[in-house]
Amino acid sequence: MFEAFDALMLARIQFAFTVSFHFLFPAFSIGLASYLFVLNALHYSTGKPVYLTLFQFWKKIFALAFAMGVVSGITMSYQFGTNWSVFSDRAGPVIGAPMAYEVLSAFFLEAGFLGIMLFGRSRVGPRLHLVATGVVAFGTFLSAFWILSVNSWMQTPAGFEIAPNGQFVPTDFWQVIFNPSFPYRLAHTVTAAYLTTAFIVGGVGAYQLLRKKRREDRPGARTMFSMAMWMAAIVAPIQVFLGDAHGLNTLEHQPQKVMAMEGHFDSHPDGAPLILFGIPNSAEKRIDYAVEIPKLSSLILKHDLDAPLAGLDTIPEDEQPPVGIVFWSFRVMVALGFLMVGIGFWSLYARWRGTLFSDRKLHWTAFLAAPSGLVAVIAGWITTEVGRQPYTVYGLMRTAESVSPLSAATVGATLLAFIVIYFAVFGAGTFYILRLMKTGPKPIEDDRPDGPIRTAGITPAPSIDDKFIPAE
């Protein structure tokens, strides 16, 4: 059944499938960890029960998303040894250390304090529990820091030399980590994770406001919807500027990726148009049925209407990325980004009019846009990774040179196994998360012990309904 594919294509499909599946969970959990810290801090400082209610609700969802992210990430990392052993052998001396630091620092930090965050509030007291929540949030950011550093090095390699045996050997660790594209990719990706969480939280809040029962029976719905819309109104416009800066950096270091994103098969010596829509025709090297704005691409990329822009006609054909995929994934990402900006501004207008919690059109829009962040980050990942092709290490090591010497049947069998297991296991987990979101937060009693209830001994811990006695 795999006669139409070779091992390279199947290995690429397998990695694309597993990393896309995996990326959904960190994109959600990075922002959700920070949101939990904010909720915990607000409850600690104000004592309002609504923040504790929301914290207890979202921490269950965070635990599930975090667990599925860890499991899916482990299987993805194994593929470096199974399907991409040549890449691992050659690039391992450079990327091995940052990936190990991600486990030793970020993951251990998250795992070490996760139990306290999930189960320890009544045992360690609200102050230390707040610290533990903050450490988990910092750990998720640190994890993104190391992984994005590795990915950015593959995009813009620096701080290395190639040994006689073909291995990439680090010569400057700081240049490896802080390579030219890393600061832009880190800011753009982490901000995207925060927006992803904001729109999921806003979607759940909007759903609770839309339900037929009285709105006062929906504890925390107004609070989480308001907080999410503040995030959308403030952060979504910032993300537009971060994306623009990232695009300019990409133009400097990976020009053919930008050419594919813009659909510029031909060079434009007197200003390039911005192609809004069209159908890429790679065989004829043109965009069919193009809808474009003259010279706007030059204005965006060069800040000059008449600035010349090179096209793919200046790049050897065997070094050009697949234009069709990159062209459309980029437009999906940008369109969803501007949708988020629009919803954020709409919420500001509704807030100014005093209709933030009664505007059902806004609630329906926010509810339907809940998964927009997840779609946007996958579209952005496709733009970044497919746009790097045909290289794994940009300009130095091709994807065809990186694959393990395996048969198509072997890779195809594991691909089928991944598909079946992923949809069974993670499908069940996702279904349970959606059920929790549908149910919504339930009001709980405010328990605010001043410190740990006990440090040793065999006295059973009190239940959540018991009154806590402050520690001496």
Automatic annotation (TrEMBL):
Q: Which UniProt keywords apply?
A: Cell membrane, Electron transport, Heme, Iron, Membrane, Metal-binding, Transmembrane, Transmembrane helix, Transport
| Species | Fulvimarina endophytica
Primary localisation category: membrane
* InterPro entries assigned: Cyt-d_ubiquinol_oxidase_su_1 (IPR002585)
Q: Name one GO cellular component term.
A: cytochrome complex
Write the protein's name: Cytochrome ubiquinol oxidase subunit I
Which Pfam family would be a valid example here? Cyt_bd_oxida_I
The GO biological-process annotations, alphabetized, read as: aerobic electron transport chain
The record's subcellular locations are: Cell inner membrane; Cell membrane
Residue ranges spanning the membrane: these are: 20-40, 61-80, 100-119, 128-148, 191-210, 222-242, 325-350, 362-383, 403-434
Family statement = Belongs to the cytochrome ubiquinol oxidase subunit 1 family.
Give a GO molecular function annotation for the protein: heme binding
Topology in the lipid bilayer is annotated as: Multi-pass membrane protein
User: Which segments carry the region annotation Disordered?
Assistant: 445-472
